TrEMBL record:
A Pfam family assignment: CTP_transf_like
Name used for this protein in its record: Probable nicotinate-nucleotide adenylyltransferase
Span of the signal peptide: none
GO MF annotation list: ATP binding; nicotinate-nucleotide adenylyltransferase activity
InterPro entries assigned to the protein according to its UniProt record, in alphabetical order: Cyt_trans-like, NadD/NMNAT, Rossmann-like_a/b/a_fold
Pathway: Cofactor biosynthesis; NAD(+) biosynthesis; deamido-NAD(+) from nicotinate D-ribonucleotide: step 1/1
Length: 206
């Protein structure tokens, strides 16, 4: 799917001008139900128009290089979100290449579609480390920060943000990859279309 998509053009962004847009970034390696549940909770509770899923090319805060091709991560996101018309997959960072800094994406979005209001969606661990992100001060000015509250998790934000409560699903892409590697079922942990894609492609077996 990635090779068949044109690069995002400024005209396409202007067509959605004036909307309330949630931004959810990450490796999505693979996308799982906790990602989707969090996005839906923010979408509905903050009355957003859309949530954009923007997969990293090279994540700045991950020590290990991604073994899963960008094509597969993008395809799984497309499969996971296709039934929700308010979820969009935006491949800005994959097309830009290099290390994926959120500040670069937000600068681009604010330049090309400045009338949109953007809401940067973060998990509790990201909230606690946000102050270490590249140009965090500017990023906090360009987007409204939104944190997914996790019960019992120490939350120490350094910037003002909106907290959104969501079902406490303790799930990570790392755990899913490990389960697949050891032959454990991930049914119901990822959308069924994603599970079938992983099986057909033989992903995460080594």
């Amino acid at each position: 799917m990635l090779e068949n998509k044109p690069k995002v053009k400024a005209e396409e962004l202007k067509n959605v001008s004036g909307k309330q847009i949630g931004i959810m970034g990450g490796t999505f390696n693979p996308v799982h139900i906790a990602h989707l549940v969090a996005a839906e909770q923010v979408l509905t509770k903050l009355h957003l128009d859309e949530v954009w899923f923007i997969p990293d090319n090279i994540p700045p805060h991950k020590e290990l290089a991604l073994k899963t091709p960008a094509q597969d991560r993008a395809n799984m996101l497309e499969l996971a979100t296709k039934d929700n018309p308010k979820f969009k997959v935006m491949l800005l960072e994959l097309y830009r290449g290099g290390i994926s800094y959120t500040i670069d994406t937000m600068r681009f979005l604010k330049k090309e579609a400045p009338e949109n209001n953007y809401y940067l969606i973060m998990g509790s661990d990201q909230v606690n480390s946000f102050h270490t992100w590249k140009d965090a001060d500017e990023l906090a000015r360009l987007a409204t920060l939104v944190g997914i509250r996790r019960p019992g998790y120490p939350q120490e934000p350094h910037y003002p943000l909106i907290w959104v409560d969501a079902p406490d699903i303790r799930l990570s892409s790392t755990a899913i990859r490990q389960a697949i590697k050891t032959g454990t079922s991930v049914r119901y942990l990822v959308p069924d279309s994603v599970r079938k894609y992983i099986e057909e492609k033989g992903l995460y077996l080594d």
